[in-house]
């Protein structure tokens, strides 16, 4: 009879090896997607330009111990009033590990912001926030090989604030008011105001809340309201030329990834 020698592997070691092999099999790259951040503006009627200097754009991943991840460091000034009527600019785009990203923040410079009023430029001070940044909750789900587009609506009309009398050298403050929406789950409204000489401001209103606004093009009256979640809106057209009266188009339906066309809205004369 031939005896075969059998080497017994301790049970604990066997379990350890099994975990190691399983771990090796599942420790592959979890995949990555892309986050792109676009910025638009809800305009301000009392200024000719609103210049904001952004140092960096960062996001924070759920459960991550690495802290904030930098999407971009533009180190650039942006005139918010150029970002109306559907115009946007990309302020950050980067490949990210798949997962849920809870927050985004904009790091603004301490200086370098300005507002132009009646042909004169004034420096704007940020009273707080340059070090910690302007934080927004987004809960963005980044999926493998998918681009996630986030739209930031920088509301200039609410962000530019006249300073008090405590410091006569500071005329204006920048207190950023920004909303964030996933562009893929929003729709738009567009139309034309006649006559364009009415110089109208156009608002999208849901209930008692103004969701976004824009100034119709001063050469042809065209307007586009973007980044609206699916729902029903009233579109209010308010002329800055006192010769004309305001007009409201009610019950405008917005659906995802579509643009609701209102055609020409004629404003009555006073």
Please explain how this structure is put together.
There is one protein chain. With 270 residues, this protein is mainly beta. It folds into two domains: 30-176; 186-270, Immunoglobulin-like (Sandwich). It contains two helices and 20 strands. The protein has helices at residues 11-26, 156-159; strands at 32-42, 49-61, 68-72, 76-79, 89-97, 99-108, 113-117, 120-125, 134-142, 147-155, 160-162, 172-174, 178-182, 186-194, 200-206, 209-215, 222-229, 231-239, 247-254, 259-266. A hairpin with a 7-residue loop joins strand 18 and strand 19 (247-254). The chain starts with 10 loop residues before the first helix and ends with a strand.
Structural class: mainly beta
Strand content bin: over 45%
Q: What is the number of independent domains?
A: 2
Instruction: Bin the helical content.
Output: under 10%
Largest sheet: 9 strands, mixed
In DSSP terms, counting alpha (H) and pi (I) runs of 4 or more, how many helices?
A: 2
The averaged pLDDT comes out at 87
Low-confidence sequence ranges:
1-28
Rounded to the nearest angstrom, the distance between the terminal CA atoms is 116 Å
What's the count of strands? 20
